[in-house]
Design goal:
alpha/beta; 2 domains; about 400 residues; Aminopeptidase; 15 strands; Alpha-Beta Plaits; binds zinc ion; nine-stranded mixed beta sheet
Length: about 400
Amino acid sequence: MRTPPVEPSRFASLWSDLAVIGRDRLRGGYSRHGFDDADLHLREWFTAQAQRRGLDVETDRNGNVWAWWGTPGAGAVVTGSHLDSVPGGGAFDGPLGVVSALLAVDELRVRGVRPTRPLAVACFTEEEGGRFGLACLGSRLMTGAVDADQVRRLHDGAGQTLAEAARRAGVDPAHMGPDPERVAMIGSFIELHVEQGRLLKSASPAGAPAAIGVGSEIVAHGRWRLSLTGEGNHAGTTVADDRHDPMIPAAATVLAARRAITARPGAVATVGRIQPVPGGTNVIASRVDVWLDARYLDGAATGELVDEIVAAVREEAALEGCALTVHRESMSDRVDFDPGLAMQLAEQLGAPIVPTGAGHDAGVLAAHVPSAMLFVRNPTGISHAPGEHAETADCITGVEALADALEVQLR
Ligand SMILES: [Zn+2]
């Protein structure tokens, strides 16, 4: 028998707790980054909410926070997401999955579910890579997908290393690294997330908009840093022929990225960050670092896309007398979520199956454990920006769908 719908006020209450944490007055939206003050505040909030529900909270060796219903052990059903954001990000990316997980636990209890296996709500460290530049940091460390020594040396914009930041947050950096026992405990992982596109407006098999969808795959995605070196000089006295201005090939990067994706339906490539050195209005830069984010089908296709962009930049750099070095900061190949689990959830929830171009902790875990994602409709498709939104009614539908999904997994 179906229980009454989840009260919107219960969602609103948790949501208003979060609304005041980590606001970015300069950019708008939220800036919450791994181990910073906002992140620590959010971790405290999560711990208090989990304890209020009688869940046992622990922080693992990589700073991921786990709240357990039942004794941690084999075959655990795990849900959750992340609490950090991109700089000036929206409210929903990450926290919606954590809030929904807590409310789903409440809902399972209202339904009288008695789990036959442990259930955990997990919050993964620095999913966005907004502070230290490496996305899905907590899940990658846990699964051994990234070298812990390399991670400890990562530093933020202010020069603080990840090791120092972790220590300040009470996480011993010396113990960071693969956690195979913990991964082995996970029987399945289901991450609920705000949709970061607009497929749910049209993806329903019946043609009607759908409040929630089930993830099929994450397309390949990576980040590259292009460092262009020229000759720093005076903006007022250096004539065109004498210039070796790295900003020229930097600009070419932006345009080449647009050309390359226009020729490939479904591909995306973005220059969202440029850093000129020294960065003065009346100075021709001596160096410009350009970060390129590219996402397309699989690893090979994404590689070709980036090669084409880099070739165009190299040509422009040569014409300007500048040098180019390319450093791949990260690359994640296409990830298919567990097809059996996705089919089962789609059938159980009557939800369409949709792909995504965004990376997620569920994508990292999918290589190790059956993983699935539930997406909640986002009316504008805007994400990683303050305009990110989901209607409360859709969020409630998401909580109920997550509770339905977990209930089946817990049997
Ligand atoms: Zn996210």
